[in-house]
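Figure S7 source data.
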Amino acid sequence: MDSEALRVTGLSGGYGAVQVIFGIDLTVRRGETVALCGPNGVGKSTLVRMISGLSRPSSGTVLLGGRDVTSVPGAKRVRMGLTTVIGQQAFGSLSVRDNLRMHTYPVPRHHERPDTAVDGALAVFPRLRARADQPASTLSGGERQMLVLAKTLIQRPDVLLIDEFSLGLAPVVVGGLLELIRRLAAAGVATLLIEQSVNVAMSVADRMLFMEHGTIIAEHTPAELRESPDLARRLVLGGHAQ
Ligand SMILES: Nc1ncnc2c1ncn2[C@@H]1O[C@H](COP(=O)(O)OP(=O)(O)OP(=O)(O)O)[C@@H](O)[C@H]1O
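Tokens for the predicted adenosine-5'-triphosphate complex:
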């Protein structure tokens, strides 16, 4: 279907002989934000790694904009419009601006000059722009997070995968992230958000998927969960879902 930015079908796999993911099916449409929640160790990060191309599934398919990318290397998936945000990596000895320049490499699909792309991303984060020439190692945690978001803007994704971004961040920084996700969604970006905090996920997601033991066990809208607070708590803690 046209509006499907990401489709995962029957995805299974793990680490060596240990299977962690068991036949996952999910879809994220253009402009949609889908949250993936669940207790520690159920396989959320492993699923993200398989979708992004960092790990290979043992079976199943990953479609980006209707194209089968299951055998396409991760770096090429970035050029095809898939950006993955994991943690807060940055090259500490390089300046903020040079960190951003490095991410202009996959941009040519948008035919934008590297410096224009960097200036455009910095314009969204004035605090980061004020520190554009200082080494990334001198940034605060929140500023480093802004750098990650600025990199994401430069890559101009069609599909955004975000893994546990809000962990340990000040509420004001999380608020900034959520605002950015909403803006990207309004521009048509499809986001799959792995989020420990169900409250954070509910404030931005259109749909919420819950995982347990490597499978998706439930899907609800935030409205359904608000009507039944016990349900959300049970799903997140695992055990007796649905
Ligand atoms: N590199 C690895 N080698 C072997 N097993 C791994 C590896 N990485 C993760 N695992 C195992 O795979 C399972 C799923 O881990 P994963 O990190 O995907 O879970 P998660 O749902 O993202 O958890 P969390 O919320 O704690 O990050 C866990 O049992 C974990 O111990």
